[in-house]
Design goal:
By secondary structure, the chain is of the alpha+beta class. The chain folds into two domains: 8-71, no CATH class; 79-213, Umud Fragment, subunit A (Ribbon), CATH 2.10.109. It is built from four helices and seven strands. It has helices spanning 13-29, 54-72, 176-187, 189-213; strands at residues 74-78, 93-98, 109-114, 117-129, 132-138, 154-163, 166-168. Strands 1, 2, 3, 4, 5, 6 and 7 form a seven-stranded antiparallel β-sheet that branches. α1 (13-29) runs antiparallel to α2 (54-72) and α3 (176-187) packs across α4 (189-213). The longest helix has 25 residues, at 189-213.
């Protein structure tokens, strides 16, 4: 989860205390390295570099982002992985707004946390299980649904996507063309590798252009 860097002293005191409280808890289990968290796209935290394994670093990032979302109501996170191709591509900047499960509708993209990891998938359906709303979600590029998402796992929904200098709303329903592309990306690894390679080249060219114009 990458974002705009800002010096730690400029962050609100309450958030600094929350950050260091999280860090101390993680440090007691395992040491960790420098990492950053984007909050509302304007504030990042850079922490002293220590030895860490990647799993612990990722747990720390997700824990901080989840707390920030609950406290502030909005965060911005970088998309990673391929499970939401072609709707989301690696490097997309996602605006996440805090939502309860009952406020999320089928077709929307939801952020949930499971086993201390983040998942952004599309809601397929929702149902009541007793007094609890349970969501069924699936990545656009995945062959099957995720295990049911419980109320306590839901953090929010994606309200905006930023890509290559453009901002747009998430698509609520895949078009026929997008469904075909998603099916090919899911079933045909060569097609997926070529697509990701082309995306990487386009993204690199855009980044170089931006640096040249700066």
């Amino acid at each position: 989860m990458m974002g705009t860097w800002a010096p730690l002293p400029s962050c609100p005191a309450v958030m600094r205390r929350r950050v260091f409280s999280h860090l101390e808890g993680i440090r007691q289990r395992n040491s960790f390295s420098a990492f950053c968290l984007s909050i509302a796209g304007t504030v990042g935290y850079r922490l002293p570099s220590l030895d860490i394994n990647p799993q612990t670093r990722e747990e720390g990032r997700c824990s901080l982002a989840a707390d920030a979302l609950r406290s502030w109501g909005v965060v911005k996170l970088r998309a990673r992985g391929v499970s939401m191709l072609p709707s989301l591509w690696p490097g997309d900047l996602l605006t996440v707004q805090s939502r309860r499960p009952e406020q999320v509708e089928p077709g929307e993209l939801v952020l949930y946390m499971r086993h201390r990891r983040f998942f952004v998938h599309r809601v397929v359906s929702k149902r009541l299980a007793g007094n609890e709303v349970v969501l069924v979600a699936r990545g656009d590029c995945m062959p099957q649904d995720d295990p049911p998402v419980q109320s306590g796992e839901v953090l929010g929904k994606i309200t905006e996507i930023q890509r290559a200098g453009l901002s747009f709303l998430p698509v609520g329903k895949l078009s026929r063309f997008r469904r075909i592309v998603a099916y090919m990306l899911c079933r045909w690894s060569l097609f997926r590798r070529v697509g990701l390679r082309l995306w990487e080249l386009c993204h690199r060219r855009y980044s170089e252009t931006q640096r040249a114009l700066a």
